[in-house]
Amino acid sequence: MKITVTGSLGNISKRLTEQLVKKGHDVTVISHNADKAAAIEGLGATPAIGSVEDEAFLKEAFTGADAVYVMIPPNAQAENLKETMKDLSDKYAKAIEATGVKYVANLSGIGAQSPEGNGPSSAFYFSEGRLNQLEGVNVLHLRPGMFYTNHHGSVGMIQRMGFMGNNFSADTIIMMSHPYDIADAAAEAFDTLSFNGKQVQYVISDEFTGGELAATLGEAFGKPELPWVVMTDDQLKQGIMQGGFSAHMAENFAEMGRAIGDGAIWEPYLADKANNFGSRKFAPFAKELAAIYNR
């Protein structure tokens, strides 16, 4: 089967490409960076160099594909995340319509059930909605939780400040996902064509409270008493902006924290936990993360 993968050689897309090539599929990988072409070829895939913002390029890259994996590239400096999501999702949908692609795996988020209140995850409500308008196209929305790899951004807090935290309490449950589980869910779906119509697949690898998360990372980093600190929204936003995010994105993450705190963001998943694909536990990842930074 011919499959086009967006996301270049990111944490999900590289693994997905490797798995699909191993299964014998003909894979094209979209990257905006021409320097990635050789690495893509090294995986046994064909590079398509261009921007997903370019609708004409998307149509060219999707032409001849039986299936596509689509994702919205992260943008720390976004000033209107929902409009950005709407615009790119529309371009994806038009390219899919124009080229006759029949199977789509869409990287969404666990809070996509609501257009408001779930921070960045609410923006996926609009990408799912636009792809659901496609007639005669089978779409699988992959809804992961918080990415394990986001904790690369927690290392400075752990090492320099000696705590972890967010704007919710230590006993709050957090649903988390390993990027490889997301990639493997997409690879299996494409290989078996096990989805039809418009479907949702949750990809939750592990569940931790904030306190358990701090304890696990603390142990891995040699700080077994690492505390979980509850921040105010303003403190959280200031920290996020110091990390290079726009004020708009910082407010979105504060909103997500509030949704995690009251549990609203998880409700559809908790009602449908049997519909989950995920197995990689967080503790081994924490040790891998610490090994990178403790060299």
UniProtKB/TrEMBL annotation:
**What taxonomic lineage is listed for the species of origin?**
Bacteria, Pseudomonadati, Bacteroidota, Flavobacteriia, Flavobacteriales
**InterPro entries this protein is in?**
Ergot_Alk_Oxidoreductase, NAD(P)-bd_dom, NAD(P)-bd_dom_sf
Q: Domain NAD(P)-binding, which positions? A: 7-115
Q: What is this protein called?
A: NAD(P)H-binding protein
Q: Look up the domain of life of the source.
A: Bacteria
**Which Pfam family would be a valid example here?**
NAD_binding_10
